[in-house]
Batch of 3 targets.
Target 1
Amino acid sequence: MSNIGKVFERVFGKRKKEEKIVEIEEISSKPSPVQETIYLKALPLRDLSDVEEMKSELKTGNILIVKVSPLAKKSVEDVKIAVNELYEYVQLIHGDIARLGEERIVMTPPPVRIWRERVPIEGRSTAA
């Protein structure tokens, strides 16, 4: 598994419930007045400063596909920081976030949800 894959696994894998105090300006569980047209945008994550632009795009109601490999070439640790920050933000606004392979993530504003296929793990029963 690549370094980016390991970062994704840490962020999207089993997460411990942590109590964090986050200072955020006027974020409600409802999206801000959504623009008439919702865009699906493909954006590169080149620097930690790109995270704020992505939050703004989500806040206006756009759906994002983010390629993290440009930043990963510079610093895997910065990728971890950025993805964690985006994950927490998406959770806070009640959007959705998922991994798309080894190099991309997709983020949606509320009420858009990402469909996830549940694939049983070999050797394990699917019965509850």
Target 2
Amino acid sequence: MAFYSSGGAALSAAGCRFEGGYGRAPQSYANLVQSHGPCLARFDQCVFDRLSLSDAATRAVVFTGCTMNELLDPAPRGPTFTNCRITVIDQAKKWDGELRRRDLNTLFPQWRERLQRR
């Protein structure tokens, strides 16, 4: 879960990365947003990798100039997509936990060492 709200929320992100496959359950299903109240979100020039946008379907969400790699589901109806590039993961691989598990060292080389220095 990249973004969670138990009440109303508004979010604006520009030039950010949202990637599934990390965290406490890296091989589980990763959702971009989950909100239990009104939610407005705008994403400009962001990258989304290996996660689901399905919960964004019931929210007021705008994606502009974003790149979406290996989404876990086809892009939902509801959000606005403007000048976005979207690919969907092969459905035969969708639930392959090992394929979806990501190595944090690839994204943040030597992250453990950097934490130990502090």
Target 3
Amino acid sequence: MPLIGHRLIRRDRVVSTMDEVAALAAAGEPEGTVVLAEEQTGGRGRAGRRWEAPAGTAVLCSVLLRPGLPPDRLGPLPLMVGVAVAEAVEAVARLRCQLKWPNDVWLGERKVAGVLIAARAGAVIVGIGINVDGPVSVLPAGATTVAAAAGRPIARAALVERLLARLDAGYLVFTAARGAPDLGPWRARAAMLGEAVTIESGATRRHGRFVGVAADGALELAAGDGSVTRIHAGDLVRGPVLTAAGPARG
């Protein structure tokens, strides 16, 4: 029996699937429990951003995990989850995904899915949102749906089934490797790898060339002098981002 999805709780409408799973974790619900909702009224993305999708058009779910690893071993987890999401989308849509560090999934350089990891109630909660169908015009700028990219209808039930299977397989690899899995499948899909990029974190901007990801999931940014800085959080943007004083510098 698979671990992830052995208990699948379906909800019509919630504030946040992550909040639902946090409450279940606090009540002692077992690892692998999944909450899947038709609609979220207060879904969140990274850095407090809202996750917006019309009701009945997206895969909105959260997973309760108890990996038993120290926090410094969880860095690759969003990358592993991103690979699982990409594999599921690729299987049903027959399209190649790109992965934008640290937690976005792209189709045709437009965001189709996002991942959010949070430690709550003594557990690790993985939130996933995938835009499946519905009008692209109502989504935030730069977003798309699996159906729009594929040019045909996509069955959400089939995508959920494949997603849970790929999450289960990836999580087994992640825990067996004690939080240090092979990141080759992520690197093979990495958006902007080898390009000049800017990492934005609050008011700080660092410019360089995106040369890889470290074993702990940190982005490796090479400066003009050849030095490499490891960055654990921030927004990845293509190209130098101009400031009043000129391009941001690493």
